[in-house]
Design a protein that fits this description.
mainly alpha, four-stranded mixed sheet, 4 strands
Length: about 425
């Protein structure tokens, strides 16, 4: 049962809320389209291309490859976004959530009380996930087996593609199902402080998954082997010792089975952490360049970016559940989305939809913080290694191998880029 709160709010009619949501959704789509076209216009700016040649040594052939890759992705993303918009608006306008709500209610007619509430919620989200997966499958297939394949980045087979899909669904059901059931139970049974219990449950769950991911989840998708002794291992050990990073091992991940893109990261919480290198990274870079990339990643750890990010995430989660607790009893929200009655799963759906719109307009702030941290990690790597030359060279190789555009329109970058454009990073490293 959803209880009332002391918070009082005079809301407009359900029809007004529905219209406002549709208008806000269309406005977001138009803003995204405009930003995309604005960024696209910079790709053909000769001054930008000349700067890329000067700073990165990008040849005309490399620029042509990057342009072709960017253009294909741009066109595909715009078509997919347009379909997403009209499918979603049509689904809402035709009462799709109400239909799913009634269907899930029929599936649990033999249950009663809280069990029926939890069972209906699980059925509702299971059907919704199935519909979403069915809709997104052709888009994902085209992206991997046409665009990535066309430009030489895809290494995944159709069998591997579907194997990853099945594993993802099973892991989502095993991990997400119980958590969702617990959240719904809190909303239905824990009284006015349900949001606090839900927040604590989600926080604990996130920390446990972060701890278990390296050894339980990641091996389901990739194979890991310990980095053998040699110049690369010696360089990594010296770096870790110099900066005081306690590692629980250095591992090579078979990323090349899916893509030719390279990366490195560390993972784990509560004590020692694993350092993971993509095999594509080790193949494409010299040992010194690999160490420089890793120095950047470890800079995030030493500068407490990971801890700060975790704290921000926890605080945002607390605020999210608190606001959801305040808005939960207002029937207008549910009626606007064609739900037949107030329910925990309806509350989660409606609130997620509105918060998704809000998050788009908050993206520039989030990206600003992330780009600031990237510059700081680059400076840390340069200081730890005594020079930024290896990192500059590594970034150049990684850009070339991924055919990514080395520059972007400042407004598009501010809205979407969690990492600074490559030219900005290299200029900062060379400053």
């Amino acid at each position: 049962m959803i209880e009332s709160t002391p918070f009082s709010l005079n809301l407009p009619s359900p029809q007004f809320l529905f219209s406002a949501f549709i208008i806000a959704t269309v406005v977001q789509y138009l803003a995204e389209s405009w930003l995309g076209r604005l960024n696209r216009s910079t790709w053909h700016d000769r001054r930008r291309q000349a700067e890329a040649r000067e700073v990165l040594g990008v040849t005309p052939e490399d620029m042509s490859k990057s342009l072709a890759y960017a253009e294909d992705r741009f066109r595909f993303d715009r078509i997919e976004s347009a379909f997403d918009l009209w499918i979603f608006v049509g689904f809402l306008s035709l009462g799709g959530f109400g239909w799913l709500d009634r269907l899930s209610a029929l599936a649990v007619t033999s249950l009663h009380g809280t069990a029926a509430v939890v069972g209906q919620a699980l059925c509702f989200f299971a059907v919704m996930a199935l519909l979403r997966m069915t809709y997104s499958l052709p888009w994902s297939w085209y992206r991997v087996f046409y665009i990535e394949e066309k430009h030489g980045f895809n290494r995944q087979t159709p069998a591997g593609f579907f194997a990853d899909l099945v594993k993802g669904v099973l892991i989502g059901a095993v991990l997400g199902g119980p958590l969702l059931a617990l959240l719904v139970w809190f909303i239905a049974s824990a009284g006015m402080l349900w949001w606090l219990y839900a927040f604590l449950a989600v926080t604990i769950f996130s920390l446990v998954v972060s701890w278990a991911y390296p050894v339980l989840v990641a091996p389901l998708f990739n194979k890991f082997r310990a980095l053998e002794a040699g110049s690369l291992r010696d360089g990594i050990d010296r770096l870790a010792e110099k900066i005081g990073f306690a590692t629980n091992g250095v591992f090579i991940m078979d990323a090349s089975r899916r893509s030719s893109h390279g990366n490195a990261y560390f993972t784990g919480v509560f004590g020692k952490k694993r350092i993971v290198l993509f095999d594509t990274l080790v193949k494409d870079l010299t040992p010194g360049q690999v160490v420089s990339v890793l120095a950047h990643e470890l800079g995030h750890f030493k500068l407490h970016h990971v801890r700060k990010g975790l704290i921000r995430s926890i605080l945002f989660s607390f605020l999210t559940f608190y606001v959801l607790g305040l808005l939960l009893p207002y029937a207008q929200f549910y009626e606007a989305f064609r739900f037949s009655s107030m329910s925990p799963h309806a509350a989660l759906v409606v609130f997620s939809a509105w918060s998704g719109l809000l998050s788009f307009w908050l993206q520039p702030l989030q990206c600003w913080v992330s780009r600031k941290h990237e510059f700081e990690a680059d400076r840390f790597a340069r200081g730890a290694l005594g020079t930024g030359s290896d990192l500059v060279a590594a970034l150049g190789v990684l850009r070339e191998k991924s055919s990514s555009m080395p520059f972007a329109h400042p407004l598009y970058s501010a809205w979407y880029y969690s990492h600074p454009p490559m030219i900005e990073r290299i200029r900062a490293l060379q400053a």
